[in-house]
Structure formats: C-alpha cells, structure tokens
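User:
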Amino acid sequence: MAARVIVSKHDSIVQVFEMTGKLLAQYPCTTGSEHDPLPIGDWKVTAVYKNPKFHYSPNLFWDAQATDSQATIAPGPRNPVGVVWIDLSKEHYGIHGTPGPGNIGHTESHGCIRLTNWDAMELAGMVTKGTPVSLVE
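Assistant: Predicted structure:
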C-alpha cells in the first residue's frame, strides 16, 4: 500500500512511496495547462471511484461554450476521466485516467493529474482514503 504520493509538475510524473520511503511505482502524467495550472500543495485522497460517471459543469471549464449545459457522461474507457477517479481534498481536483493515452505528458489537462487508464487503475489499488498527495513544482 502507498504511504504517500508525490506529483511533480516539472517532471510530469507521479511517484508512489511505501512507509519506509521505498519507491513502489512511477507513472508519466499530465498536470494542468497554461489556462488551468496544477495547484501546488498538500492534500489527501478522499475517495476512489472505479468506472465513474463524469459530471460536466461548463462553469468549471475555461474553454466551455456559452451554449454548453450540464451533462453526465456514462462510465467507460472513453469517459473524459477514464476508468478511475481518485478524489483529492482539493475541491474539483483528482487523479484520473484518460480516453487518450497518447496525450499523457502534454499539458492538455484542466488542472487535474491525468494518467493512462491502466496506470490510474493500478494507482487506485495502492491508495486509500487519507493517503497524502503532495503536488510539487
């Protein structure tokens, strides 16, 4: 099990450590964008949702169209957050999968931490409610 997770904005990686400090896993990630930079700080995992629905709220996205309305997108690998959502104590932020694994490592996120679906699912199996997550430059 993970004792802590560190997300490096500069290196575009997520690192998972056990209690002794040993590195358990490391994943490439996408962290925010110019419009929605990754907020730096220390938070905790509040929940893990596998096969989540995605609730689209246009007021949360800078690139939403004026004609957009709220929507719920069904679970599945093509869902905007992929197959897993790891909720963080920073409201509206999480670690999640993606329907486009080829985009990992590029700054095309709305501020969250995006992993491939398979990496997000593996990470979801290592964290629990309360696991510390540090987002660093």
